[in-house]
Amino acid sequence: MSALNLDDFTDLIERPDGGVRRDAEARRERQAVPPGALGRLDDLGEWLAAAQGVVPVRPVERPRVMLFAGDHGVASLGVSRGPAGGAERLVRAVLEGGRPVSVLARRLEVPVRVVDMALDCPPETLPADVVRHRVRRGSGRIDIEDALTPEEAQAAFRAGVAVADEEADSGTDLVVLGDISVGGTTPAAVLIAALCGTDASVVTGRGGEPIDDLAWMRKCAAIRDALRRARPVLGDQLRLLAAVGGADLAAMTGFLLQCAVRKLPVILDGVVSAACALVGQRVAFRAPDWWLAGHSSGEPAQAKALDRMALEPLLDQGVSVGEGTGALLALPLVRSAAALAAELPEVAAEDEEGGPDAAGEKPDEADGGTDEGEAAEQPAAALKPEEPAGH
């Protein structure tokens, strides 16, 4: 296997089309509802038009929920409400339709794809299309050992790139990205603390199923110890993912970067996808222009990462369950923005000026004058609105 050169992503990733965005803004100014009256929906519609490279924006017709799954050795320390090695149960529940993301996806008619990268279970217990990219069984306990070997980190990253290519080639036009894990918020917090230069206590949250104070202290200690192991490898993003990430996080990072290469927009879910996005930003600074923050999960590390990437969450509903649920809630908002941007009618120029006499010109008086207070009739075509400033 040839070595990965992450610097290539800097050259491959372009920003969404700025010219198309300006065209979308100009079109918005001509529409019936005044610009700004739709709030962030205006920005969303213009962002999506730039990502698609077309005006008017196309509807989002083939979205996909993408969930990367893995177990984390650090869960054995009791840093999570879920049992160590218990992510397989969550994956099965998602596949069987019994998790919140499954219910929402069914209602919104969005397919869900689960990719097992490091579940701690025999691969034959899950469908072949779920396990075919698996790198290993569980990731290492990051407070005392590396999560992955360098070879495993590279394989997981490449798997994420391959999955992004599969989705782009199949016609997916927007991805809702989440994770299924037990213990995954701990390596996510470590990555964010390392990249933002903060202490463990600043990024230690309560997790998807909130933990008590004793578990929080154990989690904070694990993040502190893992941070010591992370700092020496901050300059090498693959080594960082190998040391304190995990196979699912490495794959999500590769997936996000390749989506940006393929100009495939992504809605980020919680702290795990935010951590991977932050690593991706370190690799290619233009990559976050292709991502939206779906919601605020309440995790302090997520807020730190989104602030660093200048991404503002679309929703804040207190959803902490993970598995792409909060990000999927934002999908109807994005679809609504696209529909409004594409379907609101444009207003004729004379209507925008408020009618023929809007420029304040007085009609010529007829011979003999007019009665006081009575406007002289004149064809509308004879009056021309003033040219707007700057034209």
Counted by DSSP, the helix tally is 16
Arrangement of strands in the largest sheet: 2-1-3-4-5
Helix-strand topology string: HHHEHHEHHEHHHHHEHEHHH
Q: Ends: how far apart? A: 58 Å
> Which residue ranges are poorly predicted, with pLDDT under 50 across at least 5 consecutive positions?
355-391
Strand content range? 5-15%
Rg over C-alpha atoms, rounded to the nearest angstrom: 26 Å
As a percent range, the share of helical residues equals 40-55%
Major beta sheet, specifics?
A: 5 strands, parallel
Explain this structure to me?
- By secondary structure, this protein is of the alpha/beta class.
- β4, α13 and β5 form a beta-alpha-beta unit.
- Helix content is 45%, strand content 8%.
- The longest helix is centred in the middle third of the chain and has 21 residues.
- It is globular.
